[in-house]
What we know:
- The chain is mostly helical.
- 72% of the residues lie in helices and 0% in strands.
- The chain has helices spanning 28-39, 41-47, 49-56, 60-84, 91-99, 101-120, 122-138, 144-160, 163-191, 204-207, 212-221, 239-269, 274-280, 285-293, 296-331, 349-368, 373-406, 413-436, 438-442, 446-473, 475-480.
- The longest helix has 36 residues, at 296-331.
- The two termini are 25 Å apart.
- Residues 1-8 and 487-495 have low confidence and may be disordered.
Amino acid sequence: MPVTSQAPEPTAGRPPAPPALRTGTLGTADIAFFVVSAAAPLTVMAGVAPIGIVQGGIGAPVAYLIAGVTLTIFAVGFTTMSRHIRSGGAFYAYIARGLGKPAGIGAALLAVVGYNGMEIGVYGLLGSAGADTALALWGTEIPWLPIALAGLLLIWYGGHRSIDFGAKVLGVLLVAETGILVLLAGGVLIEGGADGLSLASFAPANVLVPGTSVVLAFAFIAFTGFESTVIYRREARDPERTVPRATYAAVCFLGLFYAFTVWAVIQAYGDERVVRAASEDPGGLFFAAITTYVGAWAADLMHILIVTSVLASLLAFHNAINRYCLALAEEGVLPASLARVHPRHGSPHRAGAAQTALGLVVVGAFALAGADPYTQLLLWVNTPGGIGLMVLQLLAAIAIPCYFRRVPHGEGVLRTLVAPVTAAVLLAAAIGLVMTRIDAFTGAPATVNTVLVALVPGVFLLGLLLAHRLRRTRPEVYARFAEEPADRTPQGVRP
């Protein structure tokens, strides 16, 4: 049974401890549901994979396998660190312990901005997808803003409730969105595709083409959020086992599932015709395929499940952001009020309310400016967020061997040196691909792209300046930053 968040009875002369996160609540599957839901597999496949096929041709499935292998290598060192560092700060704690507190505080600020960018931008996608679904199914035109605002309220409520409530919701939604893609793939396999099943997608001649670099960039972004498994360490059952298992399960599932699904939709049209079909109607590629191989009812259901897929992604990122802010508030870096946990639900409800308010401000600002919910709110806010999280992965990969050089441990050289160094090289190359093809992500003018990319180093630099200020003005906060958790009350938090 999970341990509840109720504080123990006070003893004589001692006030009760403040409520805390629910420990021992999440199993491997629960954590995997959170991180796979954040990736939004159905939305990635139906909305982004057709563009990958246009750019990379029938060899597009291999890009997802390459990204999956790279991130699996990264996960080797990443999960090894999780056994030695128990802080709820995850990325920033690992980077602080390996590269120093200034880099850790820079990483903390980048993580908060990056995860918020990934989440808040998706409200534009929710509004756009919801409006498209209403028009496609019922012929009704609905403005995107009311849909996005309703989503903000729903996600706030989901984050306000207990973590096991969120895990159950995400489990149902994830099974539904992956199930519809399995149904499509099953229909294609049973019918034998348009021209018989072919493995030409995996032939080197079809993979080693100029457009593969664009598909690789899309593929790495499609895994965003898988690393957030370690954020749930404090709420996991047997975290030394659960967190690594969930991390490997998430990254392996996403890599194989993405590659299989893209290959299946290629077979639905045939190797010779799929690129033209994707070029003519990228948004309708999956809907037309499932109509042909399963039925029109399945296409209608897919429209609805894309909306629930986006909601699941929003809830997963919202929960991750809340726990990052909780950890930073407990450190004393963010306001202490954000460290308060709901006495009944065991959720970081103050952090959740603050995150929802920030989302409302950003969504409202874009709406007042007359911005397009997809091409501007989604793409302009998501892109620096995604790049920021990739940079954090790179910094963590570099920090891992630095940390293990300085501390005694019983880990092998493969986990502490070979895997993280290899991952760092591959992640640096992936970031380079994204940077050089940034226009494919944003569709924006060069000036806008420059600003969006510059936000990432700008935020990290601001974090370094914050570290300098903390060391000078609040040395006690700086000294305890990213230290191992102890049985203590967070600074400034009163029961």
